[in-house]
Design goal:
- The protein is mainly alpha-helical and about 220 residues long.
- The protein is about 70% helix and about 0% strand.
- It has 11 helices and no strands.
- Helix 2 packs parallel to helix 11, helix 5 runs antiparallel to helix 6 and helix 7 runs antiparallel to helix 11.
């Protein structure tokens, strides 16, 4: 990333454009394409939801320790928190005992571990994971919600898809504008911003690896 461009281009624009390739790769994974195309059963959706829970537990456990941090603190916003909604969805999908025997896929474990590591040791890196997950939920995640409702008969915005319903954010477009303003004002120099961009790319790669693992569990031929 050119240092002049870093100085003159809004950071929210830089982080979006620099990670576009990795973002596209994640969205176009075989598993996600098959799930959104309605070619996989509800078991695949449930397994995907389980993997999300591990990642969001890492994100939100980290948020508790970063709320006062000068770099990451402004991004810690209660209205974004998803773990409780994921647990409600998993109760609907799996029953009250959904935690029993639950283990992350290898790629999920690696993803959650990296999020937790950034939360402990590198608040600016945590922002990269926060951005890739939560803004994705507010945007592309709504496509997954709609597909789940139509394909597997979940009540509109009801249990099973609560993860994608941000009840405390009545205007997602305005919220995302505010989030981009936080990115533009992030307390980091140009070198640190470059590192955040690189971590954003890594976050998408970790997410793609989870889709790859899920694709091996749910090959379309099955």
């Amino acid at each position: 990333m050119d240092s002049t461009a870093t100085t003159t281009t809004p950071f929210s624009t830089l982080i979006r454009t620099a990670s576009h390739e990795q973002h596209t790769e994640a969205e176009s994974s075989t598993f996600m394409s098959d799930m959104l195309g309605g070619r996989l059963g509800v078991e695949a959706y449930a397994r995907y939801t389980e993997q999300l829970w591990f990642v969001y537990r890492a994100l939100e456990d980290g948020a508790e320790t970063l709320s006062e941090d000068p770099v990451a603190g402004p991004f810690v916003q209660p209205e974004l928190m998803r773990a409780a909604e994921l647990e409600r969805d998993l109760t609907h999908l799996r029953g009250e005992g959904w935690r029993v025997g639950l283990e992350p896929l290898p790629a999920t474990a690696a993803y959650a571990a990296r999020v937790a590591e950034c939360a402990r040791e590198w608040p600016a890196g945590y922002i990269a994971h926060h951005y890739t997950r939560y803004l994705g939920d507010l945007s592309g995640g709504q496509i997954i919600r709609s597909t789940a409702e139509k394909t597997w008969g979940f009540e509109r915005k009801g249990d099973g898809v609560r993860f994608y319903v941000f009840e405390q954010i009545p205007n997602p477009a305005a919220f995302k504008r505010g989030y981009r303003e936080l990115l533009d004002a992030v307390n980091a120099d140009d070198l640190e911003k470059q590192r955040i961009v690189d971590e954003c790319k890594r976050a998408f790669a970790l997410n793609t690896a989870v889709f790859r693992d899920l694709g091996e569990v749910f090959p379309l031929s099955a």
